[in-house]
Amino acid sequence: MSERDTARAGDQTAVLVMAPELRPAATAAQSGPPASPPVRPIVDVTVRAAWPALALYLGLRTFSILVLWLFAADRNRGLLDVLSRYDAVHYAGIVARGYDAAIPLKADGTLAITNLAFFPLFPGLTALADPILPGGPAGAGIAVSWLAGIAAAWGLFAIGAHLRDRRTGVLLAGLWAVLPHALVQSMGYTETLFTALAAWSLFALLRRHWLTAGLLCTLAGLTRPTGAALVAVIGLAALIAVIRRRDGWRPWLAGAIAPVGLLSYVIWVGHRLGRADGYFHVQKDAWKMSYDTGAFTAGTVHAALTKPAPLVIYTNILLLLLALALLAILILDRLPWPLVVYAGLIVAMAFFGDSYFNAKARLMVPAFPLLLPIAYALAAGRRRIAAVVLAALTLISAGYGVYLALAWTASP
């Protein structure tokens, strides 16, 4: 190789590695999963590259939990007890006793809530961790959530770095750590595990690693019913690739395996209860959860504007409006459509739910693409501004987490 060829190759490598600002233009132009470019930039998502994002995430979450611990101790409350309430109790119960054989009945003969509404991957991982960790199933569930939170932050870094640069990835992970409902990321809840699987599945899709995307989608479908949003995105992307005759047999297989996890559990619940609609029967008749045209959400907002309501209701109203605004920005900025559709479906599932208004913001925790416009803006500005914004959001998140854990009397 001549010196001229060597220099030319070095220049090309420098463009790919050192000029991440070239990526957004290429990404924004995509109307579907990435087309086949002559040269595909390699994104470094190793621990060596991602450690600032992981350190930032852990630091911010640790600060919030330390604040919660101080306030809980002042009220003679144990931190383990505070972080293992509500849904975490059901998951711990599945680990200890297994799933209900049937929907239990109340004293008056009506249906009671049942743990059949909860998907199996999180309690399965908790059961694996339980024998080797202190705190019983509750402590193991919290540990699984923390580990999943690290994996989620890593996945968010990967997506941010893929779309723009490492700084964007770090900020995306940091912003997700200080959401108002970030408390549940440190509880025995499934939001962190689902977000981790969704983030890495979408990253694989953006890189056209079809089998990885499909397998992770299968696991996400075993984690939460919101896995349906990810199944829809992977399935649509696979269909587009098949129609355009791209990537051979891989999109076919990815589209086929994506819904397996979700459908498997729904079918299993139906078999256990002896009726094909068993899972939907559990949701609608035992848990009183379904979907409408938005009437429940609109009615709750109207009621809150006409008479006093708890702080959590006003917070959820504000966050729903903010989510819709950020979703509009995602569309206008022409970000890759899989991220936009995924976020839109997560928001829609929260908005059109006809119960548990207090949990709507928590249901949107996995909608991390909504944070991309904020991450972009902070990454483009001065570091001091980003630091101030993150510090302010951290204080707000920590304070609101204390309210949700110690003052609010229902599930966050």
UniProtKB/TrEMBL annotation:
Membrane topology: Multi-pass membrane protein
Pathway(s) this gene product operates in, as recorded in its UniProt entry: Glycolipid biosynthesis; glycosylphosphatidylinositol-anchor biosynthesis
Segments crossing the lipid bilayer: 49-71, 141-163, 170-190, 210-240, 252-270, 311-332, 339-357, 363-381, 388-410
Keywords: Endoplasmic reticulum, Glycosyltransferase, GPI-anchor biosynthesis, Membrane, Transferase, Transmembrane, Transmembrane helix
Record has Disulfide bond as a keyword: no
A molecular function GO annotation: alpha-1,6-mannosyltransferase activity
Localization annotation: Endoplasmic reticulum membrane
GO terms for biological process, alphabetical: GPI anchor biosynthetic process
This protein's name: Membrane protein
GO cellular component, one term: membrane
Main location: endoplasmic reticulum
